[in-house]
Amino acid sequence: LAHFNSLRHIHSSSSSSNMCKHNKNGSKGDDEPFPYEFGGPVGALATTLALPVVVLWLLQMGRVGYMNFDFYKELCDNDKCDPMTLVKCTLGLISWFLLKVLLWYVLPGPIVQGAPIHGDKKNTLPYKLNGHLSYWAVVGMVFGFKVPLNELLYKYFEPLAMCDIGLCLVMSLYMYTNSFHPKDKILAKGGDSGNLLYDHFMGRELNPRWGTFDWKVFCELRPGLVGWMLLNIACAQEQLAVHGSISGSMYLVNIFQAIYVWDAQYQERAILTTMDVTTDGFGYMLVFGDLAWVPFTYSLQAKYLVHHDPNLSTVALAVILALHILGFYIFRGANGQKDKFRRNPNDPAVSHLLYLQTKRGTKLLTSGWWGMARKINYTGDWIMGLTWCLVCGFDSIVPYFYAIYFCILLVHRSMRDDEMCAHKYGDDWLEYKRQVPYRFIPGVI
Predict the structure, then answer these.
(1) For residues 83 and 40, what is the distance between their CA atoms, to the nearest angstrom?
(2) Fewest C-beta in 10 Å: which of 10, 333, 344, 391?
(3) Gap between the Cα atoms of 34 and 22, Å rounded
(4) b/e sequence 76-100, b meaning 16+ C-beta within 10 Å
(5) What is the rounded distance in angstroms from the CA atom of residue 364 to the CA atom of residue 423?
(6) 107 vs 130: CA distance, rounded Å
């Protein structure tokens, strides 16, 4: 699920112009260049400024149903920028975050150890996993109390997004400044360049915590991801209120994405081994991705359908449903197989799989799902995302933003993973690529 929270579709760069000299603590003065991504400090600043604009632009296009470059003229229409409205939205967002924190604290859940920190098997952190129970608690509240989410969320889509963006900036600045005190905190290697703009964006501290409360893991799956589902429900309620019924497309997109969110909560433990948790710091990139980008851009299809439903036939909806099931089967089958093998290679479900034993002592699967393609899970994930867009018909390109963006993101992320694995495994990675030559689609690419 790392794609939910990574904005790596922006270009990274390893050119000499984007490198500085640094030592192991990130300060300048060593002979080894710092491997900047995203175009270095300038690219990080540009991305920080551009992402909020993209979110607000998409929200406005989802409402009008077409590409509109004058969106900024309408942002403050209809009292959307009224100070009282913004205050209420800010308090509402903070209350939602605190509710999720409360549920994390009071609901039971197993305590598990995370992945080794920077490869040190003796250095791990404990995590309380009760995201699945928290998910159902929220669902129970919403439907049990018949919460009118269209009145609370849909009617305030834009001001909620604006306030959320502001809160993300505040949180990321806090995470950056707090990473310096005390000085013995564990830092993310990619966010310790010594440059304020770049480190704020990438995240300086690897695992910011208040006691056992882990900010990064909590934000990865809880407020933004479940908030996305609530925004979708709000759109369905608004469609019912305005048009008198909920369309087949709106039902499908709500069901598809609710299952996706549920699956993330159910498989919560799997996120502990993702790049976002093991490698990246918790800076603006992940804060914004988790809490603003996910809920307010991934709900684009539902927002579009409120007033621009294509009224697809039953046959068309059935074909889209079948395609979605195929994507989910590939996605869950591949990820489930990898997760079982990581936990216990002798598990009867995966013990028959062939693998490449690396010099580092790890095993790379060369059969089963992972013998078909090195990123077969990405393929299933993208197919599911495509079906979210297909339910919107073909009258506008706006709802297809996700499929286009996600394709670029996955290709770039696979290239980044390939580079990291080549450095990590050396010649073993070349042999692995020889045995599993395809990246996404067996026999094709």
Answers:
(1) 36
(2) 344
(3) 6
(4) eeeebeeeebbeebbebbeebbebb
(5) 15
(6) 7
Bridge partners of residue 356, in order along the sequence: 364
What single letter denotes the amino acid at residue 396?
S
Q: Do the beta carbons of residue 312 and residue 27 sit within 8 Å?
A: no
442 with 34: CB under 8 angstroms?
Answer: no
* Its pTM surpasses 0.85: yes
DSSP 205: B
Gap between the Cα atoms of 285 and 275, Å rounded: 13
CA distance 371 to 267: 23
Secondary element (H or E) of residue 356: strand 355-357
Q: Which parts of 199-290 are beta strand (E)?
A: 209-210, 213-214
232 in Cβ contact with 257 (< 8 Å)? yes
- For residue 185 the two structure tokens come to 């905190």
> Cβ neighbours of residue 115 under 8 Å, at least 6 residues apart?
124, 272, 273, 277, 278
Cα–Cα distance measured from residue 429 to residue 366, given in angstroms and rounded to the nearest whole number: 12
Structure tokens at 107: 């609901």
**Residue with structure tokens 């603006």?**
284
CB atoms within 10 A of CB 172: 22
- 249 contacts 312 by C-beta, under 8 angstroms: yes
CA distances, 444 to each of 299, 405, 441 (Å) = 32, 21, 5
Report mean pLDDT in 10-residue bins for the chain, 445 residues: 39 36 44 83 96 94 87 65 92 98 97 87 91 98 97 96 97 97 90 95 96 95 97 98 98 97 93 89 96 97 97 98 97 91 91 94 94 96 96 96 92 88 94 96 93
Residue whose C-alpha is closest to residue 34's, from 19, 24, 13: 19
Nearest to 290 by CA among 411, 387, 165: 165
Q: Is 146 left (phi over 0), alpha (psi -120 to 50) or beta?
A: left
The tokens for 398 are 């706006």
User: For the chain, what is the radius of gyration of the CA atoms?
Assistant: 22
Give the E-state strand segments of 345-394 in sequence order. Answer: 355-357, 363-365
